[in-house]
Amino acid sequence: KVLRQKISNALRKCPESIFVFDEVDMMAPGVLNAIVPFLDYSPVIYHEESNERLITHRAIYIFLSNTGSQEILKTLVELWENGKHRHETKLSDFENLISLGAFNEKGGFHKSDTISTSVIDHYVPFLPMEQEHVIMCIKAAFSDRGYKATAEEINEVLAHVTFGPPPHNLYAKSGCKRLEQKVASVVFRRYKD
After folding, report:
1. Which family does it belong to (predicted)?
2. Alpha helix locations (H) across the chain?
3. Which residues is 21 bridged to in the sheet?
């Protein structure tokens, strides 16, 4: 009820509101069922208490989740084994498995009306990063510090990144997390010397 009230109040102030729900996989199952009326295809709903008309079809709802990450990784490896590179993948390669994963895995979407009523328009995967993407993060972290890194320094930071799954080890297990700290230690050491 609190969630519905907050959304109603936001829509009353601004029908073009953007709502971001982070770590949906950590939410209790069923919590998001409360917002199905806002997501449904009806352009207007009526506020529960005031019976005020709320325009709902202009709002954007973004749900961030790690749901389906293992299935995404497995599918990406299979596509790679069949000769398809990460940058050649399409949304359709992942959309259905994210939807199924979200519905079946523990978390905020588990057996949720939000999914079973088909009110979510797009499921967009966060694909794991390959070495080239991690190197871009490393270069950006050095650049943010006003430091022009050598190939040796970039590789020194890259050595701290774990790639998987075996046997190909194509994707960074933690993406670009913790790279800032590794870059900071390299820069500090260089300035110290």
Report:
1. Belongs to the ClpA/ClpB family. Torsin subfamily.
2. 2-13, 36-39, 69-81, 95-104, 113-116, 131-144, 151-158, 179-192
3. 63
**135 and 123 share a domain?**
no
Q: pLDDT per residue over 182-193, tens digit each? A: 999 999 988 877
CA distance 17 to 39: 13
Rounded Cα–Cα distance for residues 31 and 10 (Å): 18
Band of residue 179 on the pLDDT scale cut at 50, 70, 90: very high
Residues 104 and 122 in one domain: yes
Residues 68 and 159 in one domain: no
CA distance 36 to 51: 18
68: left (phi over 0), alpha (psi -120 to 50) or beta: left
Q: CA of 94: how far to CAs of 37, 69, 89, in Å? A: 26, 10, 9
Question: Do 110 and 151 have their domain in common?
Answer: no
- Name the band, by pLDDT with cuts 50, 70 and 90, for residue 70: confident
Do 81 and 136 share a domain, yes or no? Answer: no
Among the listed residues 126, 21, 33, the one whose alpha carbon sits nearest the alpha carbon of residue 63: 21
Is residue 103 within 8 Å of 112, Cβ to Cβ? yes
Which is it for the CA torsion 97, 99, 100, 106, positive or negative?
A: positive
Domain range holding 14? 1-127
